[in-house]
Amino acid sequence: MPSQPHLPRMPRVYLVRHGETEWSLSGQHTGRTDIPLTENGEKVLSKLGKQIVGDGSNTLSRIIKSPRKRAQTTFDLLFSHYQGSRDISSIPSETTESVREWDYGEYEGITSKKIHESSPDWDIFKDGCPGGESLQEMKERVDGVIEEIRKTHQEYWTRVKSGECEAGTQGGDVLVVSHGHFSKCFLARWIETDLSNGKHFIVDAGGVSVGSYDHKDLREPALQ
């Protein structure tokens, strides 16, 4: 059989959870509350910025950020020491509520331990949050974000395969700066499993998750 033509790596989505806050340390659910990063959280992100970002902006086609200040500051710190050849401001960037944290409603600012004192069987991935977002609402919001990212990936990959785009030059990748539960839900839905499977993913403050595709096929979403 004739050998297949070499294709570059598939486009990726980089999903970054914001850095450490006082409430991420205490375990309090932080949705709408707009609290800053801790001093330690800022220091960690400043040190990790070069390692996480590197010259990666050369492959970014799009940046999506939560409007909460903890996410905005995380983005700024990650790129604070960037020395790549591309101007960050030239990359299409949007700040949108679509990647904000799960709306915890009545459970905002409360720890899971405290919630279980009155509702011992409560599980956010089964029950959602009273006065906040249900599982279905969260699923629809996350799926909408994924759909938009896949459109970006599809457009880029079509250009690469047709020879219209040189691989690795401003190529296809998307950066999302968001939150813990949103990230868990995103990872579950990226690989097209039930939203409840989000509970099985560990997403640390300041951590990065990567989604892409297996076998050079956009129909096979995978995690790296």
UniProtKB/TrEMBL annotation:
Q: Give the Gene Ontology MF terms in alphabetical order.
A: sedoheptulose-bisphosphatase activity
Q: By its UniProt entry, which SMART domains does this protein fall under? A: PGAM (SM00855)
**Residues binding substrate:** 30-31, 70, 101-104
Question: Which residues act catalytically here?
Answer: 18, 101
In terms of Pfam families, this protein maps to: His_Phos_1
Q: Which GO terms describe its biological process?
A: ribose phosphate biosynthetic process
Alphabetized InterPro entries for the sequence: His_Pase_superF_clade-1, His_PPase_superfam, PGM_Phosphatase
Give the family from UniProt. Answer: Belongs to the phosphoglycerate mutase family.
Question: What is this protein's record name?
Answer: Phosphoglycerate mutase
